[in-house]
Model the fold of this input.
Amino acid sequence: MSGDDGRNCMRGWGPLRVILGCVLLSTGAWGQPTGAERADAGTPVSSESLDAGQMSPGALGPSGTPDAGPPNPGQVRVTLHGVPVTVTASSVLVDAKDPGRYGPANLLDEDPGTLWAEGAKGTGAGEWVELSFPPETPVHAFLVTPGNPKSAKLYKANARPRKARLELKLAEGRKLDYELDFPRDFPAGGSLYVHYRRMLPVLSARLTVLSVWPGTRYRDLCLGGFVPVFREPGERALDTFPGVGLELAPSLALFMESPLLVFKLLPPEASGVGAWLRSYAKVPHRGALPPPEEEFDMHRGTSEWSRYRRDLASHAAGATSQSELFRLLPEPDGRGYVFAPLGPPRSPDAYSNFRVHWARVDGAWHVVGLEVQYREQTADD
Done:
């Protein structure tokens, strides 16, 4: 991926459809018998090649811890920041030597070296994973990583979601549905961030794969992550998310909840790592970014930053009003991630442009770059 492609690959992808209704969410299982269809007469074939390669330099640190209990590869309870989460899968690809190798608990650990792989016959369409939470759990967001994120080679070799539906079962019999699109060029290690942000507790979240991009070598459908973000309970802790810094998903939530507090997320000055803000008068819908109108290190640009505070706040609010989906994509050099709105503004006056660059510094996730655009050209410009 070239540098220009990396900066611009998040533009122009499909819309989000959200349906909110006062109907009960169906809990009927779509599962198929465990066991994958093989082209090599039943010889066990894992969902990854033997030359698995190295873990991505942008690896997310582990967060969830499976609880001890009887072996059941399709259902496991994971304690995440003190919250017991029951993770259920419609099927699991079972490794005889390591039954939990492709189990659903891997979805909560923010580690690209682990994944869930379904074990049903067929393409993987209709397979699902579900997270169940205790009553009154303050769930704030979700981070969904499609495919096998260990490497670009394995990402293409294994099947991955093309379209998926995220169904949230809420209190009082309500539900909320999101339709997630993963285009063919969605990069390995990339994720969709679902900015739920509502005050209604989530009882369960089911992610169902509706259609599949087939793998070039393996039929097993893989999913790298399905991470919930929790708020601290209580009205005075709405912008407090367990795991901020050490984990990326709650750090994204903190930024989206309070973008003006971005200074809390900058690297320590003693680290010597800068955090550059770059502004643009206009950027194209497609193609390379022009030179910035202004740039400065936010560690030393307090007075300059004051001019952009209102812009960043309005852009974040505008992006959320257009869509509750955001994209988290690997940096071209593989050393971090870029977080940005799902697509370009719907109209020239719909301000919703920003990009946040994240990197691990001294073992924690920090903002190392912030791009603010006054206006992005729409498809009609």
About this structure: The two ends are 26 Å apart (CA to CA).
